[in-house]
Structure formats: C-alpha cells, structure tokens
C-alpha cells in the first residue's frame, strides 16, 4: 500500500558474518556498582544480573513482553 513505511528492523545494517568485539568491562568499577545499586534488589538478584546463574534459575528476561 502506498504511504506505508517499512516496519521492523529499519536502520540496522548487516554485519556480513563479522562479530563485533566486546570491550573488556570491569564489573566492579564505581560506575558499574552504582548501576547495580539501582537495578538489583538483593544479593541473589545482583549475582543473577551479573551472569552468575544457579541450577533451576528462571530463564528469560524480566519485565513485560510486547
């Protein structure tokens, strides 16, 4: 239909098989600790958010899905 724009992945380019190198991040830096202070509610939540999962931990993202 005319007048309708593309929906979906507009603006994203293809990587052509190259993987982006992730920068080394210090998760104990002051900025990371401040961020963790605001997003984690307890020690277990802190570990879960930093990637230290335990057997039987729920898989998936928190929050509402669209």
Mean pLDDT: 78
Taken from the alpha-carbon principal axes, the silhouette is extended
Number of H/I helices: 2
Which blocks of ≥5 consecutive residues have pLDDT under 50? none
Query: What is the N-to-C order of secondary-structure elements (H for helix, E for strand)?
Result: HH
Biggest β-sheet, characterized?
none
The number of strands is 0
Strand content bin: under 5%
Helicity level: 25-40%
Q: Report how far the terminal alpha carbons are from each other.
A: 25 Å
Computed structural class: mainly alpha
Cα gyration radius (Å): 18 Å
Biased composition (Basic residues): 1-21
Region (Disordered): 1-26
Organism: Propithecus coquereli
InterPro entries: SMKR1 (IPR037760)
Explain what the structure shows:
- The model has no long low-confidence stretch (mean pLDDT 78).
- The protein has a domain at 27-53.
- The chain is mainly alpha-helical and 66 residues long.
- The relative contact order is 0.07.
- Helix content is 26%, strand content 0%.
Task: Describe how the helices and strands are arranged.
Elements: H1 30-39, H2 43-49
Region (Disordered): 1-26
Protein name: Small lysine rich protein 1
InterPro entries: SMKR1 (IPR037760)
């Amino acid at each position: 239909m005319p007048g309708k724009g593309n929906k979906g992945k507009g603006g994203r380019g293809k990587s052509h098989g190259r993987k982006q190198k992730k920068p080394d991040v210090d998760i104990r830096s002051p900025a990371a600790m401040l961020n963790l202070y605001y997003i984690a509610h307890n020690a277990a939540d802190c570990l879960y958010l930093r990637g230290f999962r335990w057997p039987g931990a729920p898989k998936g993202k928190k929050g509402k899905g669209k």
